[in-house]
Amino acid sequence: MPAQDYNPFAKREQFGRTNLIVYKVLTIVSWLFVVITGAYYTFNKPHEHRHHHINHTIWGQNDHRRTSFSLNSVVISIYWVVTLVLQAHYVRYLWDADESYKTSAANVGSHFILHNTLTFGFIMLWVRGHFWLGEILLAINLFNLVLLYFRHSSYPRLIHIPIVSAPLAWTYVAMLWDGAAAVNAHNLPARVAGNIIIWGLLAIGGFYLLVFKDYSMGFELAILSLAIALGQLGTKALAIQWVLAFVIMGLLLIGSVVIAVPSVIGQRKEDLPQVVDEDRERAPLLDDH
Predict the structure, then answer these.
(1) H/E segment holding residue 140
(2) In the chain, what percentage of residues exceed pLDDT 90?
(3) In 51-81, which positions are buried (b, 16+ CB within 10 angstroms) versus exposed (e)?
(4) Quick one: DSSP state of residue 152?
(5) Are 134 and 126 in contact, with CB atoms under 8 Å apart?
(6) CA-based, 20 to 30 A from 267: which of 54, 149, 185, 197?
(7) How far apart are CA 30 and CA 9, in angstroms?
(8) CA end-to-end span of the chain
């Protein structure tokens, strides 16, 4: 039996009926775990009596551990609602009559299921104040999503954005968010360190924009930078983190627009590398899929 038959993350040209059924079930169940858990802990905190003083809702924990990477709940909630809705749309591709769409959806399925499982675990740890364990899960998920990005980078945008780029952009920011909470980074040295580390978001966004011409990553990191900026407003009288976050957001937006406009109007230069082939990128937007 070929080695790839033992590897759920191997890229395949086709999937058997049994494999597709497994992907359909696990994809839906793992996605529902994230949706239900995220919704529940947005409004409720864990009720365990042991260490109850560190138990909070998702955003209660964000407010309880104020750091230089505390986020704006409204922006992040909108970001995740849109992402989850687009992920629900992705699930339907597993039933698509077009074999190319079905195969593409199944090929990213294992990574998506693992992402959902790790995200579910992170939420459970975050609301209970187990930040270091949460950071480990985020690091594993980052490896999972980076691998997904580089191994499956030629799929339509309606698969690439909700399954690959949006979760990946979020994981970069979540590691800063959770890591700052883990070290309780609220004093002056921690804020100075945060002022330096935040520029990493511009470096990461610039990398995906310049190397892969992936404007979706640029826009997503810009939105997440906005969440940091708004989350930092009024935190400290002399803090500049919100200013830096707004600057990074603006630069990422400009870079994303510069990359996106030629692609949208069909003026892509042939010598520029691109995450998604132009014809495949437009396909889901021009037909009934």
Answers:
(1) helix 131-151
(2) 61
(3) eeebbbbbbbbbeebbbbbbbbbebbbebbe
(4) S
(5) yes
(6) 149
(7) 16
(8) 35
